[in-house]
Amino acid sequence: LGPINFCTIALQHSKDASYSKAVDLFEDKELQWIFIILNLINNALTDCCVRVRSAAATCLRNILATKSGIRFWEVCKNKADPLLIYLQPFRVAKKKFIEVPNAEKKEPPESLDDCCIWIPQSNCHDSWIKNLACSLLDSGGVKSEVLRLLRPMCEVQTDFCQTVLPYLIHSILLQDPDEYWRTLVSRHVQGFFSTCCRSSLPSSRSTTPANHDSEPEFQVLGSLDKISRRTMLGVVDYLRQQKRPLSGTIFDDSFWLELNYLEVAMTAQSCAAHFTALLYAEIYADRIRLEEEQRKSKTASTTCRSLTFEEGSQSLTISSLSEKSKEESGISLQDLLMEIYRSIGEPDSLYGCGGGKVLQPLARIRTYEHEAMWGKALVTYDLEMNLPPATRHAGVIQALQNFGLCHTLSTYLKGLEHGNAEWGEELQEIRYQAAWRNMQWDHSPTIKNEVIGPGYHESLYSALQSMRDREFSGFYESLKYARVREVEELCRGSLESVYSLYPTLCRLQSLGELESVGQLLSRPVVDQDFKEVYIKWQQQSNLLKDSDFSFQEPIMALRTVILETLMEKESDNSKKECMKDFLTKHLVALSTLARTAKNNQLPDRAIFQIKQCNPAPFQISEWQLEEAKVYWAKKEQSLALVILKQMIDKLNNVWFEEEEDPALRLIYAECLRLCGNWLAETCLESPTVIMQMYLEKAVEVAASQTGTSKSELQSGKMKAFLSLARFSDSQYQRIENYMKSSEFDNKQALLKKAKDEVLYIREHKMQVNRYTVKVQRELELDECAIASLKEDRQSFLCKAMENYISCLVGGEEHDIWIFRLCSLWLENHLVSKVNDIMKEGAQKIPSYKFLPLMYQLAARMGTKKIEDLKFLDVLNNLIARVSVDHPYHTLFIILALANADKDDLLLKPEVVKRNKLGKNTSKQMSQLDMDRMEAARNIVDIIERHRPEMVRDVKRLCDAYITLANMDANHWKTQRKAINIPADQPIIKLKDLNDVVIPTMELKVDLTGKYENLVTVRSFKSEFHLAGGVNLPKIIDCIGSDGKERRQLVKGRDDLRQDAVMQQVFQMCNLLLHRNTETRKRKLMIRTYKVIPLSQRSGVLEWCTGTLPIGEYLVNLENGAHKRYRPNDYSNNRCQKEMMDVQKKRLEDKCQVFMDICQHFQPVFRYFCIEKFLDPAVWFEKRLAYTRSVATSSIVGYIVGLGDRHVQNILIDEETAELVHIDLGVAFEQGKILPTPETVPFRLTKDIVDGMGITGVEGVFRRCCEKTMEVMRNSQEALLTIVEVLLYDPLFDWTMSPLKAMYLQQDEADLNATLAGDDQECNRKDSNDQSFNKVAERVLLRLQEKLKGVEEGTVLSVGGQVNLLIQQAMDPKNLSRLFPGWKPWI
């Protein structure tokens, strides 16, 4: 496999299978235990040891004869479990119960109160656990009769004891009214963990995981065996997942025993159970916070004090908790967290627990290493003399190696050897690694370690040496030994975290690659063989493209060494040449890889090695291009340009001689293109020169390639087209912006004045003097300048469009630019030349590429407008072509336009009257709308000619939806249960629409247009539910042809176009996030759902199954989390009432009241993940997904100005813990013009932050916000284009009508009263209305500012912008000003 990116953080453990089966089968604890125990005993019956078999038989007979045993048998008889067949012979026929003598003791016996029983004294795990289990059984505390019969088995079998130990302790604690037993067991279990921690305080060198071959921090675990530690952790983990008899919440369930969870966490980390350790560390912090709060409330009653908000929300920060924990148990919470996060390999968490903020040298170094800042790490290692020497040497060596300073490194190692430094096993390994990387084959170690056998690098070194000397028996020996060791290492770990697999996978891949080369050499070699090996390497590298560079680099280094060794030994010249080519190619690949990983030192080294083996200076080859890119990456721009210009000069000369070499052509085009781009970036040439000499020439060279071409050439061609298009586009935008500017307006005004003057002079036939000549001359010049400006603008525009089209015709990787192309076309739809270009282009570009823009293109359809005839002709043809190719994606959109007025036609007049009271009043149809409807109907007719049944059925379905949407449901208003759909509704008559896909399902675009195996509509269930809200939308179930039911929400009296368009923006953002390595690695995306508008006032949405509004979870009246976890806090209603009361008062009063509420309403959202996901690894993974999803949706929501984020509009998925934002009706900053304006960029209230765990907004949240913002800012062109196309969409009503504003911030009762008196028609805006366009421009301008980082007039970096937004979103002043229905205290 190699260290391929598994896209997940936790290894999903199959927890003990019989345990999960037991939980599924039985409710009753006792029966679960019996089931598991009988399974174990059943296995023991066939054990090889006779003592075990006899003990098993005894136990079995006794258990099956007890009351519980017989009850178990009765229950199980019906379950058809094969286990019973095996156990049948052990049943006693007589119906006599065994009565187990009950040694009832109220208090635990003295004998149990002995550390020797609880803490293993010698190193023998077996005897310890058997003794512990038997002592517990003898103590008389165990109440369950079945468990009491297990003594014979506990005496003989260790594994058995390990499984039953948690049950014994659980059984003791279950009946313990006076808590005597609890105190005793707690004391000793706590003693066990304290012993573990004392023996494991950090050893001399805390290694950097992943790059070194040793255990994490805790190497000396003196007395306690790992298995013993794991057993005890198993007990704690089992108890935590059981409900306590008196407890209310999951938090109490963690405290069956009174433990210091920090020490438990430390022990878990030492067993490589990183996620468990993290969970326990958080439970510890939570406990401390609660204790602190209780202490304060006791003192608070005597002294009154005011708390600042910051203190209130996260009253104890990690650093203050660390100091407290250090005093208590000598463990720093912060160090532990850093250690855990480094072992998990999650890239951002480190910053949440002090990475980058802590001054201690080791913490600083860890952060530098994490960020691959080897220079800084090296300097810090050099300065900090008082770090342990082994740590320093290892660190310096690692930094030098990653820096590519191989010669310095070998000198340093020689120096260490002379200085007789302590050569630990670890430094020995590093020494071997340096030796094989530098190809120093004469390295002989100073000391041979006989005991442990050679480490990985030593084996690798000997294998390479044997391969060099063609001594194959030693070669295979070394490899086999190394491989066995690696696999054994894997089997030993109790792995929770995927990250800990990567180093091993990386080594195993290296060994495999080395072995395959060795096999090649052991027989006569031809050139073809090497080619195959090299192709295999390339394929493997392709698989690893998302993996960390630190795991790819060792593999690449080994390949370099293999190739160089082979070259050195090769005598045959032609073979040597062939090897040299491979080595050059490989080094170029290494350089590119390192460059993209932001490492600028290793590429230098690679280029140097290439120059060494290719001394001939006159050849042109792709490595020189890579060299130029390396210099550019190092910010040495002039050097990079010198190299490129030299190449271009050489190529110009070569070009006339031999045109036919395609590889050269590719390099030539790429050189011209890069040079053009770089010159434009550095402004070293004028635009015309850049355009003619470089970019146009690049297109010319690339396009002159005839015949079918390889994919590489094809993509080179696309890049050339795109560069030219982007450059022309930017020139066009420059002129466009100038022509929109006030400066230009002034010029026009002056020009007009001059014109009038000249006319006046001519009319009055005044004599010609110097002044009049001058005026006329200037006028001519100015008119010429403006004419040429307009001409330039048009030529740049056409050139940009032509090249965008060429780029889109040729390949797929630049499809996102279709947005820019359409944007340019729609902006200039009156220019006849533009329409000519589009007419031609629209036929060449594959039709599926227009699908994302279907809404916007369709909204412009029409038939009549005279000046638009040419444009409409091109547009209608394009839409017809796309619709015929992809009817499933387009038909619903076009029908919605054709059915724009369907609501009124399908309904009776009195209903129409009542409908005027909705959020969106019935709109008057303008001439434009009628026109569009006609055009849409024409398109539907065209599709109908191709697919008659499909169109007929889709029409029936849409009509049925619209009728249902407008059905009056008021008399069922109070019903929560299912309601039968009235018989006259057409929707229940629909059956087997075999050509209609379920509209709310995402359908993948089929490039061939065949569309097979689709899920179609079979029927609808005959009942519906009502969702809340003024308009009472209806929830129905659609049954698909695959037999699955899919929920849908049918809405009437509500324009869903805005929701649909917002989903479109989100999908675009997801595409951008998926393209960027950083955000793809973190799986950052926004949850979307399908929205299908059916007419102007109704539509259907995909129901998000398995989700729950966060308001429902937190403050539901019956069992909201706030009520369960903090019964003494204010109730949600009280908070709401208090905020309502100060609604009209001064801002300071609001703030004061809000602060008071926050003080008495503490967040509890962290318990969501702890409740729902009991397994620590799953818990961590889900919480990470939650935090990342909050980050992504916050930033994207901020960019598009999404408002109205109250707690019913944000859902949380109960399976993945991701957020889903619904009801996107308030966007593009409309929230700022509501009666109570919104003052925060997104919802980041205390509960939302609480869900992220102990580190809050630091670490994962902040970093993911930054990564998302970076992608958004880097793709501002694409985003602006999308939004631009949306805003000028004549159907997109995204300004806030006063009616809609009132609707959002009022109670239902007031609403109907207000609306009754307000029955005038809201006339539809005309789309070319000037003021509307001004508003659209303002929105675009603000969006542009956000994407440039302009906040409050200053330009901020990405980090600065994110900091500002987080601070604004959490500022109590801002929160206190919000509308109370938004519930800012939750």
Number of helices: 62
**Radius of gyration from CA coordinates:** 37 Å
Largest sheet: 8 strands, antiparallel
Report the helical percentage. Answer: 55-70%
Overall pLDDT level: 86
- The N- to C-terminal Cα distance equals 47 Å
Q: Unreliable runs, pLDDT <50, ≥5 residues?
A: 201-223, 303-315, 917-921, 1311-1328
Number of strands: 13
Tell me the structural class: mainly alpha
Kindly estimate the percentage of residues that lie in beta strands according to DSSP: under 5%
How are the elements arranged and paired?
Layout lengths: L16 H9 L3 H16 L5 H16 L1 H11 L5 H5 L27 H4 L6 H14 L6 H4 L2 H6 L1 H17 L5 H20 L26 H15 L9 H4 L7 H10 L3 H29 L6 H5 L4 H12 L3 H12 L16 H10 L3 H10 L5 H14 L3 H13 L6 H13 L18 H13 L3 H21 L9 H20 L5 H17 L5 H21 L3 H24 L4 H13 L8 H12 L3 H21 L4 H21 L4 H17 L7 H30 L1 H22 L6 H41 L7 H10 L4 H13 L9 H6 L9 H17 L1 H12 L3 H5 L2 H7 L11 H20 L1 H18 L13 E2 L12 E5 L18 E5 L2 E4 L7 E7 L4 E8 L4 H19 L1 H5 L9 E3 L4 E5 L4 E3 H6 L5 H5 L6 H10 L5 H13 L7 H6 L3 H24 L10 E4 L5 E3 L24 H5 L9 H15 L1 H12 L10 H7 L3 H9 L13 H19 L1 E2 L2 E2 L2 H13 L1 H5 L10
